[in-house]
């Protein structure tokens, strides 16, 4: 297995576009928005000393305090939680109307909700939830969200395969992932909307990609250890077919693409978003890019080559991107790359 994490001429050749198989409704009329705010409510890291700029705000210490008798005041400032999970609050403004969606919910039942409280985020103002896929580190916080929302019904867009039982099988052990229950989510107040194909939300200004076309020659998906229960057997599940992304067209700037884990492949996802919308420019790519670990590190080189060619103005990978990919992306795109952290808010405005 290749150890290189640097883009090369062969890497660049492998990122050359190739036609997507089958037919698609193309393009989709994605209405441009005037402003978008993406607040990372949960990520794998939290760094209170990160410095923000005009477009990226940091939480730092002090958003919340808790009792602590060892201090003169009897209280202490706390930061935010971090865990192996992802959740982001997405607010889009079109003309005078703001709409807020939750994209994924993190790993633990209370982690995302606790961070929202510490940041002063009112989750009852949500107008919808989107799940990027069914893995438990993106859906674990739904029970905490349900408790926060109370008795109201909350629409939630998912791919029909989010209910698929999955496991990771290695020579050392078998880890059966927690599987989402549609019945339980309905009982907790979620109005589940299953969509396999691309869908438009928020008066046509937010696109949920649905299943992503796999068009690159290097993004092969999950290793053989990742399995799904289908047809009464455990089978290799390389595609995680329920993987989908959220896309917004920022007026005069280009596409803003938000991924959960990017199981479909970061380059596949960006290409799919461009193909669906007919918008060529990618302004920002945020979220998990799933380039961590021995099975995915060989993909770093061609991924970086393709993203460098796209030249996004903001690149904020998080969650499962991995430290090797982060270092390589930071070196290749120093003006665009921004380290992710729980509590970070990206504020992007139209040109």
Automatic annotation (TrEMBL):
Q: Which organism is it from?
A: Streptomyces fagopyri
Q: Does the keyword Hydrolase apply?
A: yes
Region Disordered: start-end pairs: 1-26
Q: Could you name the domain of life of the organism this protein comes from?
A: Bacteria
Listed A to Z, the keywords are: Hydrolase
Metallo-beta-lactamase domain location is 96-191
InterPro entries in the cross-refs: DHPS-like_MBL-fold (IPR041712), Metallo-B-lactamas (IPR001279), Metallo-beta-lactamase_dom (IPR052926), RibonucZ/Hydroxyglut_hydro (IPR036866)
What this protein is called in its record is MBL fold metallo-hydrolase
List, as start-end ranges, the regions of compositional bias called Low complexity: 10-26
Give any GO molecular function from the UniProt entry: transferase activity
